[in-house]
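in:
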């Protein structure tokens, strides 16, 4: 039997939801590994809606579950109905929705609040010693919930290639260990069964981001 992996989305679109290329890469690599993806999202309003042409917020209102269903081709469940018992692993792709809809990291940084549903799910998989895969900005969720854990969001020195490197410093302030890794690499926290990769935290060719996510997914399935 293939592994059953929960994939939690945060909307649809890099600036206000889940990063679509990352989400798609996770689903493709799970399929390649012979694993079955079960897609979930919280039934809540987005923090805001961003016009992805102008890069600016609009007056629109959208629902995270409804928007995430676009990526899942309609095959999605309310996060409130997730039962860790029937699942082997958890993966959360990145995108600003993680920092806006699953948590308040975008506005509060290390002082953020994580959505209770999301926190409960992460803690349930962790308590059951089931692996958790996180990419791009989503490792901040683990940094907030699991003190002392080991993670990567790429590099901790800001430059043109790593425009969001300050995130690593903020995560360190929460007491976790940040490990510098290239975009095609992963870091595995063996003790906590956390597998992380930087994805679009790096200005890299999309195939390198895809490859890094593939390694993360492969390791999550192997650990499950």
């Amino acid at each position: 039997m293939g592994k059953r992996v929960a994939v939690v989305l945060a909307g649809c679109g890099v600036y206000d939801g889940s990063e679509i290329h990352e989400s798609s890469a996770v689903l493709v690599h799970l399929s390649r590994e012979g694993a079955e993806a079960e897609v979930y999202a919280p039934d809540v309003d987005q923090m805001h809606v961003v016009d992805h042409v102008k890069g600016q917020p609009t007056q629109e209102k959208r629902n995270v579950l409804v928007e995430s269903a676009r990526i899942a081709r309609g095959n999605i469940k309310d996060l409130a109905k997730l039962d860790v018992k029937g699942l082997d692993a958890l993966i959360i792709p990145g995108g600003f929705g993680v920092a806006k809809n699953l948590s308040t990291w975008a506005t509060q940084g290390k002082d953020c609040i994580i959505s209770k549903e999301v926190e409960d799910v992460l803690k349930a998989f962790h308590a059951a010693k089931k692996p958790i895969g996180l990419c791009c900005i989503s490792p901040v969720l683990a940094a907030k919930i699991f003190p002392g854990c080991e993670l990567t969001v790429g590099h901790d020195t800001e430059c043109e290639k790593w425009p969001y490197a300050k995130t690593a410093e903020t995560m360190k302030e929460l007491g976790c260990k940040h490990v510098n890794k290239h975009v095609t690499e992963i870091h595995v926290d063996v003790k906590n069964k956390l597998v992380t990769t930087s994805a679009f935290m790096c200005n890299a060719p999309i195939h390198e981001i895809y490859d890094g996510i593939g390694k993360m997914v492969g390791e999550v399935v192997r650990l499950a």
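note: Residues 4-223 form a domain with the Rossmann fold fold (CATH 3.40.50.880).
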